Queue: 3 jobs
Job 1
Amino acid sequence: MNRCGLVVTTYARADALASVLDSIAAQTAWPDELIVAEDGTDTVTAEAVARHAATARYPVRHLTQPHQGYRLARSRNAAIARSESDYLVLIDGDMVLHPEFLADHRKLARPGYWTQGVRILLDAAATQRLLTGAALPRPWSRGLGLVRRSYAMRAGSLARALRSAANGVVAVKGCNQAFWRADLLAVNGLDEAITGWGSEDKELCTRLGNSGVRRQTLLFAAVAWHLDHPPASRDRAGVNRARWQDSARSGRTRCEAGIDRHLAG
């Protein structure tokens, strides 16, 4: 396929980010570029990114924005605007990747589709073990959510066969998704009017669907483990959900406050 970039969003959690960056370095198929999009300007985070960049075999960019509340949509848009790749895999900075994660996303990408991946939830104890150097968990490891144990299994042929049927099994989650950059630009990226936790991912994917871009879901491929953390405030969840549902009802394809704010010229 064409150039494949990886975007990692992070906020004030350098220990988790360091584990994620280590898992990126261990990929069997490296990204053509890595963009770390940080909300805020944390010194320890900057040091973690600089250490990774010093030995990476691929370009690394570190973008920051002033921390003015939860502005994930803006952070992702800025990274997408700066990217030079045709296909972009987006993950959160608390998602530790299987060594074949990017290889799977590359192999299973399809024009006209965006891709939803899964996350395997780790409990606090399993998270601490991973942060202190333990090996990646297996399906039978302690600390995996019971429903998600099967997600740790990897079977590429099964993932390919199920990528349409799995749409009804896995919820839309922005922590593990992939898009053609041209499709994102066509709908003006994420809606920056959505601030606070929740629905910026679902709203984007709804507009993509309205524009004719279909969904595929990867079960048993592009495996990633989600590190435990306290939940973010849900104080804007209702407002954000309403904006997403309005996009679904109206058939809207473009948002007004989007990625065009970050594009040169």
Job 2
Amino acid sequence: MSGLPTTKPIRPLEVPVPVASRPRRLVGGILVAALVAACGAGGPTQTPSATSAPASTSPSETAPASTSPASDAPSSVASAPTSSGPSASPVALTVGLGYIPNVQFAPFYLADESGAYEQAGLHVTLQNKIDPDLVTLLGQGGVDIGLSDGTSVIPAVSQGIPVVYTSTIYGDFPSVLVTTSSTGITKAADLKGKKIGIPGRYGSSWIMLQALLQSANLTPDDVTIVEFPDFSQVAGLQQGRVDAATGFSNNEPIQLQNAGVTPVVLTVDDIVPLPGPGLVTGTATLQSKRDALAAFTKVTLDAMTEITADPQKGIDATFKAVPDLAADAGLQRQILDATIAAWKNDRTNGALGSIDKPGWQASVDFMTSLGLVPNKVTVDQLVDASLLP
């Protein structure tokens, strides 16, 4: 069987940890955490061979690490101007996107390339960092706003890191369980006694898997968990080493399909409405740059709407920002189409960006039952919809 195509989708945060390293600045103002640096966060560093699948690089699976409350925001953040009107000087915003530049960041690229951020009175720097940095940096004010997994925000706030989720980007939780038609697995109950591949017992995939199992009155003890620390669980699925593997709706199913394998995907959205990746900022930054953050949010959501109506705009903007991706335009379009599908919450049918507070409460309750929320938190501590247009 042929190897899977190499893809580099978004990897939003799993667990906030202290700052580990600083990425290098590259051409175009985009900061890239190279895959070599990603190894320090538990990410892969090697190009997959023809006989193995590339590591999962969709919404992230960063190995857990200890967390601590973030320090006070730097004085440069506290003194930043809050006006983003056309007559004021542009307000600088550093935007953390997570991992390497990819087509799934198309709305940010389109808003930047079109000059929409600039027209809104913003000077935006798009930045990519390895996962362990971002939540802590947001809490410290070192990054103004970033894309982070909602299931990372809950334990972070519970442990005193001063961040808040302000806008939904992925309305449908992107973490999924993928298998093939040959296994006979079509529902959660079919997982009993099966081997399931996962990077480790942490992060959004581990939370998702427990929810799937619980929906069928199963626990992890009813299956065999096979850990793939190098994120090669889909290769394990192809090789028959496991019966199913965790992944992301805009990555692993596409990889399997392109390799000539019919994927079967189990999702968690109808079981527990876990919050997907969205825009997150530090509480101090929210106060000091509220107007600029609101303008940024509106422009970004407008770009998402444009791309939903005409995906080619997202493809064109991505190829301008990351020319290397144009080498496989067909694959990039598949990834973008799957990403667009995940932006809309099919359960609530809310507008792009809207925050499903009842879903967040259900998520807090579920994660608390798993022992992942050490200190009680309320939804109002976790989310703030005041930046939405």
Job 3
Amino acid sequence: MKLDKRASVSNFVRQATEARGGVRIKKLDAEEQVVFGEVYAPGFPDSQGDFMTPDEIKKMAYNFLRKGITSNIDVNHSQTPSGSYVVESFIARPEDTMFIPGSWVVGVKVPDNVWSLVKSGELNGFSLDGWGIRTDTVFEIEMPELLKGETDEVQDHRHEFTVKFDDDGNFLGGRTSYARDGHFHKIDRGTVTETVNGHNHRFSFVEGVLGAEIHG
């Protein structure tokens, strides 16, 4: 894989990437124990401050399948295969309503022990591991104080959510809107709400960061 640029980003973006811990899991197929999410989204810095163009992401995704390494999936960068393997792989199209356009999306079938970590929220997303060539560049990003979005659907309902940052870009947490029965969820980290009434919700504010104004 080739990482074409090295981003020196504001604390807003660093807090966002660290809080999300990789691009989040966005869809679960409980019957098949398959999780879906972006492996890499274009133009958005990862936890090392690296980012890639859509063309580079496509080359990386195609090369991954060409090499036939679809079972090289570990947990928390342990370098030990977890028994998980890729069953779907595609580049999100411009009209995609679930995944960030231009991102590499995979569906991964996981064994029982990994599935339990996914359901509990301990495993929240995919994180790319590999070698690359870095080229330094600098950009500034203007972030709003509040970022808003919508959680995934659990027990036949969703919530709107709001998360907040301080003036230095530190993630302060947030909360969801009220559901019909009056409950809501606090947010202490950037991928899963607190558990209330026996359930929690996954969410992402990556899309809000991607929509912020960037200055090269």
